[in-house]
Amino acid sequence: MSQERGSCAEEPIQVHGVVGDSAASHNEQSKGTVTSQAQSPHTPQTQIGSNDDGVSKRTTIWTLLDYCKPQRCRYDPRHPPQFTLATNILLGFAGTFTVANLYYPQPILNLIADEFHVSYERSSLVATLSQAGYAVGLLFVCPLGDKVPRRPFVLLLVCITATVWLGLCLTTSFDVFIALSFVCGVGTVTPQIMLPLVGDLAPPEKRAASLSVVVSGLAMGLLIARVLSGIVANYTSWRNIYWLAFGAQYTVLILLFFFLPDYPAKDSELRYFRLLTDIVKMVVTEPLLLQACLSGFLLSAAFTSFWTTLTFLLASPPYSFSSLEIGLFAFIGIAVIALGPLWSRLITDRFVPLFSVVLGLSFEFVGIVVGTFIGKFTLAGPIVQAITMDTGANFAHTANRSNVYNLDPKARNRVNTAYMVFCFAGQLTGTAVGNRLYAQGGWVWSGGCNIAFIGAAILICFARGPRESGWLGWHGGLEYQSDESSIWAIAV
């Protein structure tokens, strides 16, 4: 990435032409439009809840959400809300119990099949359509975060998802169940709107640590959902896990409503079709984004392949674990995930993102080699691999996001969408390839494929240096520390 682009990335996002919204007092609203004095003549004017000749352009839903907004959450352009640790933790908590929606059904598909009197193959449509809905939401919903105010957008998505979830708790029709699962999958993309918001608001020197709080929350959501689902279904009806998830989602909605500050839209004049075309355009014109997307694809493929085939390994001799024991095995990575923000603060924020990506991938590479060749003989192999996989994935994903968010501060949702689409495709690839290779050659074959995935990701990282503006090469020097903390660089 060129230095010119890098310097531009750290400029604060300016909101021009902001109207005295509900964030200001009633007296200020009567004064009309408050326009930023720093507005560039070439910058398109962005209006948040403005009136043209007294006619509101807001939708009824937006107006209602704005009217009911708590005073502490209202946006005041004179005193913009600060991004605090409490807000960061709130977003991480919300991400945990939102993304968990995708993983609750996975350990209980057999019970769902028995309840609805369908085959196991047909019951797998629950997980498949949830993931398909998530993919649709990633591609067609998340980019709107660059166009609309994030607070009402997030609240609306969480409210719709939580309300539709009630149907999953009550329906006795399998067709309705899978249709509602798809809809809930679409709404579960709210964490992918929160992550670019954190990228916008966190100071550059703390951006990686702040992102890691939410990224760790997403990983915790995956683990908690699978373990909790298995435990609850083992002792009570599987419906109870859906009721528990229903309550968790409305708890998230209430907390966000009362404590999530409002922030203005970044560019409300953008057309929706342009949001979508920009995603493709940026992938093929931004070397840094493509590098991150490809490494994210391979990283996600290896990660998903490991956790999918691990179930088969632990269920077979010499381990022969029960379903509950296999589910509890996932808790091995919780301590690693919980420490993610601390490691990001100590490492990712202090060094260039590429360094952290390579470090994370190297952790994974070593762990996969160890787990692949001793995993069939001792439980130490899968344990070491699980710890290194969780550590490496947290490092690499956080650093990749921190890096690509510097490309264009006003397009962070589009950039995040591009990155997540590649990661999601990697998850699908890892699941399909890992299962097939395990069926043909067992644990060693699937592990060998994971070694190839991570090895290719490391090569992609080394193909382009942290200061390279082109597609390949290491022009600009070998920089070890980030721009915020760097005191020296070794010139090539």
From TrEMBL:
Q: TM spans, by residue?
A: 83-104, 124-141, 153-170, 176-199, 211-235, 241-261, 282-307, 319-339, 351-374, 443-463
Keywords associated with the record: Membrane, Transmembrane, Transmembrane helix
Q: Which GO terms describe its molecular function?
A: transmembrane transporter activity
- In this chain, composition skew of type Polar residues spans 24-50
Q: Which residues form a coiled coil?
A: none
**Annotated segments matching region Disordered:** 1-54
Q: Could you tell me which Gene3D superfamilies the record lists for this protein?
A: MFS general substrate transporter like domains
Q: How does it sit in the membrane?
A: Multi-pass membrane protein
Q: Where in the cell is it found?
A: Membrane
Report the domain of life of the source organism: Eukaryota
Q: Major facilitator superfamily (MFS) profile domain spans which residues?
A: 84-492
GO CC annotation terms, alphabetical: membrane
Chief site of localization? membrane
Q: Report the protein name in the record.
A: Transporter YgaY
Give the organism the record lists. Apiospora kogelbergensis
